[in-house]
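DM from R.C. (forwarded with permission)

"hey, sorry to bug you on a friday — could you get me a structure for this? deadline for the figure draft is monday and I only need the backbone to look sensible"
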Amino acid sequence: MFQPIRVMDFITHETMLCAGVGLLLGGIDDLVVDLIFIVQRLCRGPAARPTLATLPISPARLRLAVFVGAWDESAVIGAMLANAVARFDHDDYRIYVGVYPNDRATIDAAAAVATRDPRIRLVIGTRDGPTTKADCLNTVWHAMQREDAARGRPTDAIVLHDAEDLVHGGELRVFDALLRTHAVVQIPVLPLVARGSPLVSGHYADEFSEAHAKTIVVRTALGAGMPLAGTGCAISVPMLESIAGQRSGDPFDADSLTEDYELGLRIAELGGRATFARVRDEDGALVAVRAFFPATIDAAVRQKARWLTGIALAGWDRTGWSRAAAIGDHWMRMRDRRAPLAMLVLAIAYGALVCWGADGALRWGLGEPGVAMHPSWLIAVNTALLIWRIGSRMAFTGAAYGWREALWAAPRFVVGNYIALLAARRALFRYVAMLRGAPTVWDKTVHAFPAELVAEGR
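My reply, with the result:
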């Protein structure tokens, strides 16, 4: 046999074997989560869906503080605040907006709304931005404490939101009801699919639909810590005070890129009860946060790279593992941190396909017989797992967004993998830079507020 063909055969076989084993392990890991979810649903049986109308009502409302960190958000912060105060159905809340002294445009946009509504507080930090979102939230936290001390009445819980969020009017009622028995409550996040970007912006819709309808359910059922989404979550002030007491008075870790993820795990370690609330309103819609996510490849890569760096790389260094007997928590943390390895396996898989095509072309050019992809059983199993995975993703997307978006979920699966590959490379470089002393800063993307949905009354 001609030597180049032998070399290509060897490279093709080895890369396929390596990728096949890696994909098999990842596929089985995902399948086990699916099976636990299915068994749990079957054992639980049909149950009445909780609604705003069925939530327990207390005569004394909790005092809530909504925290919004804002850096370079002049394009969205005004509309977000105006919409929030118009929608929130609660008698006792305030909104604290954290801004930076060198971000005049955001200050002016937030101040324009704050001057019209006494429930909005503008908190201008002492340091120029950007720092980190956690650092900004710490500044807001201390401003809230000073106001509480001056008024003589403490805040019961804080609610986290982003500057581009479209809030649901009933969410504060959900938090008010559930925070009486829980330390932290998270509601779903439903990314909006941007017109003109059904693939990039839409792949967030697919991922969050599955994560917030299945993965988080399995996670809490196993007793694992519930990571927070950084928006649409409420945390009791006593719990935050307990964490702050261990951090020189700051409840949020200013050195973290993903303070929301770490905060959820920390609350679990301290024994705080957490719940993921899927509550529907009078029209049958989920009480959820809706927002536009990045609509371009570059912006999505930047955001995903920050998540990867903060959770799978730097986050591993910072949070470590759970207590020895917490098998479910160990498993979930391992899943959180498998992304860089999964991207390496995926890259090898794509490389194997290229090698297989080059091997076939070389054989055809030399008049040699073609070679089948091996090992065939491994390819068959991985193909079945892939079909199952895409089908599951489509099902959850369809349940949240309808059948049209469910059909888009299949091609978006490929787009999501491409974005993840680029993000993994960026995350690795950023992590190395952090190890060499690079500062941790707020690497945010440009946001847009869904004004057209507000105009339509949605």
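R.C.: lifesaver. The chain has a mean pLDDT of 90.
me: no worries. The CA atoms of residues 92 and 221 lie 33 Å apart.
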